[in-house]
Amino acid sequence: MTRYIFITGGVVSSLGKGLAAAALGSLLQARGYKVRLRKLDPYLNVDPGTMSPTQHGEVYVTDDGAETDLDLGHYERFTGVPARKSDNVTTGRIYSTVLARERHGDYLGATVQVIPHVTDAIKEFIRSDITDEDFVLCEIGGTVGDIESLPFLEAIRQFGNEVGPERALFIHVTLLPYIPAAGELKTKPTQHSVKELLSVGIQPHMLLCRADRPIPENERRKIALFCNVRQERVIAALDVDTIYQVPISYHEQGFDDEVLRYFGIEPQGEPDLHLWRDIVQRVRVPEGEVTIGVVGKYTSLIDSYKSLSEALVHGGIANNVRVKLEWMDSQIFESEGAVTHLEGVDGILVPGGFGERGTEGKIRAVQFARERKVPFLGICFGMQMAVIEAARHLAGLTEASSTEFGPTSTPVVGLMTEWTRGNTREVRQAGDDLGGTMRLGAYEARLVEGSRAAQIYGSTSISERHRHRYEVNINYREQLEASGLIFSGLSPDGVLPEIVEIPDHPWFVGVQFHPELKSKPFDPHPLFTSFIRAAIEQSRLV
Ligand code: GLN
Question: What is the Cα–Cα distance from 306 to 255, expressed in whole angstroms?
Fold first, then answer.
């Protein structure tokens, strides 16, 4: 029997609902249950693929090629359950489904309305693609009280009523702000937020209260009384030093026990948390430190590189070191002499990106890494910049560029309009809609025997997630390889370059895919483990 847990947020945004859902998922999993996590986003974009990463944070890509909310990254990193297309929906997607049905005549002459047609489509999504999961956790984006989230709240209210309380649990995440003048954690915003939720017919069964210090029993009692929630179900979610401590802290507060008891299951023994304890220990007591310079474009919002910064932390966990990140806007390297800023770092990473702004700075950062023999990892756009750099400065193709920046005589990076996925041919056009028209999701690659890439992976056959429109142009392979940049990974048909490397360099690798999307704290991605190891070597040199 599948049970549903709905997670809403109140008081303010950015309370870490996604992390809360992910951590609860991992706790239930540690007790042997099969879980699935989903996100319902109230905004009107059909998916976050067209949103600026500096506004909404990173776009997380699933194996099956969906562009989704970054919270799905947390879900995967905490549970290891691969997220799917069917795990993220937005108002935009719901409305496009409803409107397509209306045009198709599926509503048989009915007046199409938010209730029941939109709410039905939302409930259909919640139920879809579920098999033998014990628990499905659904996080509702936004904050209770937003106009946009109303249809979602109405849909989960109806859903809870339909499946019955024994199969639906409502958890509300709130904030208890500390007011220094009063010397107290304040419960009023939580009371108001629960009232707001009650006004749409949802009585939360459990409250997860974010606070920066322990919540006195008296305050818990007060919250329980005013919010009509049992006191043991008012759970403190205190700030922690590393996100990987969250499952442990929640368990100490009795969160998973209370969730099970709500469903009438008496918790048996303790969940197996040794994995998380080990990770937290490694994060807290590292044996050393390395500094990685991340030369990107969206450095103003740390969430725009969420999976990347986590994957670098995982590389540190694998090597028992703390990874210090220096976020650098690539544009600074466009002024003469600015590359000296890179002198203090032990490794340079150029991440994914779109558009021409800042690219000359990225190319300079690559050149610095190549010439000064600093470990370098280029991801997606970062690999494309590494190829342009090598073409210009090693192969003598001075005009080398990408067609992403306009017409060029030397398109070492260009738009591919056809490519294969397994046995099917996929086609796109230059003028296609922007949303969902990239090479998206998992694709296989073959690695050259004996290459650094093959050594790192311990295999010559890999599968990684993609999200890009442009490809390195295979026609320049011979010229680039002759100058020292080797194509060590290709698509199975040999047409699309997937990995480049410079053998005559301590560690220089560019990948067309996004390895950071598959890294887990308990299973760090081999590329990040190897890159951080190379950075440790580098730190010993300087
Ligand atoms: N802008 C490049 C492309 O579309 C790279 C994309 C990325 O880094 N994700 O191919």
Answer: 26
DSSP letters spanning 268-283: PS----HHHHHHHHHH
pLDDT higher than threshold 70 for residue 431: no
**Residue 237: closest CA among 272, 281, 274, 207:** 207
Q: What are phi and psi of 420, to 5 degrees?
A: -110, 145
Q: Which of the following is catalytic: 310, 380, 471, 501?
A: 380
Coil vs helix vs strand at 432: coil
How many Å lie between the centroid of ligand 1 and the Cα of residue 450?
28
Question: CA 159, 161, 167 angle in degrees (round to 5)?
Answer: 80
CA atoms within 13 A on the CB side of 422: 4
Q: What is the overall mean pLDDT for the chain?
A: 93
User: At residue 155, does pLDDT exceed 90?
Assistant: yes
pLDDT tens per residue across span 312-370: 999 999 999 999 999 999 998 888 888 888 999 999 999 999 998 999 999 999 999 99
Q: Inform me whether the pLDDT recorded for 498 exceeds 90.
A: yes
CA of 355 to the centre of ligand 1 (A): 8
Contacts of residue 431, defined as CB under 8 A and 6 or more positions apart, other chains included, come to none
Cα 273 to Cα 31, 60, 260, 281, 313, distances in angstroms: 9, 27, 17, 12, 20
| Atom 8 of ligand 1, residue of closest alpha carbon | 352
The catalytic residue among 117, 251, 516, 525 is 516
Q: Contact 445/498 with Cβ under 8 angstroms?
A: yes
Residues with Cβ within 6 A of ligand 1?
352-354, 380-381, 404, 467-470
Q: How many CA atoms lie within 13 A of 290 on its CB side?
A: 30
pLDDT at 418: 61
514 part of the active site: yes
The pair of three-digit structure tokens given for residue 143, joined into one six-digit string: 């904050």
Which residue of 304, 357, 384, 403 sits with most ligand 1 atoms within 8 Å of its CB, as the best mutation to test the pocket?
384
Tokens of 128: 């879809």
The tokens for 90 are 């937005």
Q: DSSP string covering 208-252, please?
A: EEEESSPPPHHHHHHHHHHHT--GGGEEEEE--SSGGGHHHHHHH
Residue 379 CA, closest ligand 1 atom number? 8
In order of their start, the domains of the chain are 3-279 (3.40.50.300), 286-414+471-541 (3.40.50.880)
Query: Is there a contact between 509 and 348 (Cβ–Cβ < 8 Å)?
Result: no
CA distance 273 to 279: 10
